[in-house]
Amino acid sequence: MPEPRFLVYTRESCALCDEFIAGLTELLDGFEVRDVDADPTTRRRYGLKVPVLTCDGSIVCHGRLDRAAVERLARG
Q1: Is 48 inside any structural domain?
Q2: At what angle do helices 15-27 and 67-75 cross, to 10 degrees?
Q3: Distance of alpha carbon 7 from alpha carbon 4, whole angstroms
Q4: Cys-Cys link to 62, which of 19, 20, 48, 52 (CB 3.0-4.6 A)?
């Protein structure tokens, strides 16, 4: 079974995003980070919700890190 793919949408100069990523780093060995403003589609979809964490394309949490949800998904 493949590892879940975690992706975080953030925004430049976002203190909440920095805090979110710091917390996520404590929970996961690897995840991808993308600037929500780099793509018009992601800006429309997630722009007002950043930071947004997705796993395999589905939203896990946004705004604040849901540690329990991340741990549950990471364990499979």
Answers
A1: yes
A2: 40
A3: 10
A4: 52
Q: How far apart are CA 44 and CA 69, in angstroms?
A: 25
Q: Which domain holds residue 55?
A: 6-75
- Is 1 domain-assigned? no
Q: Residue 14 falls within a domain, yes or no?
A: yes
pLDDT tens figures, 47-64 = 999 999 999 999 999 999
| pTM listed for this prediction | 0.94
The amino acid present at 72, given as its one-letter code, is R
CA distances from 69 to 28, 38, 50 (A): 12, 27, 17
Residue 18 sits in a domain whose CATH number is: 3.40.30.10
Q: How many domains does one find in the chain?
A: 1
Is residue 1 over pLDDT 70? no
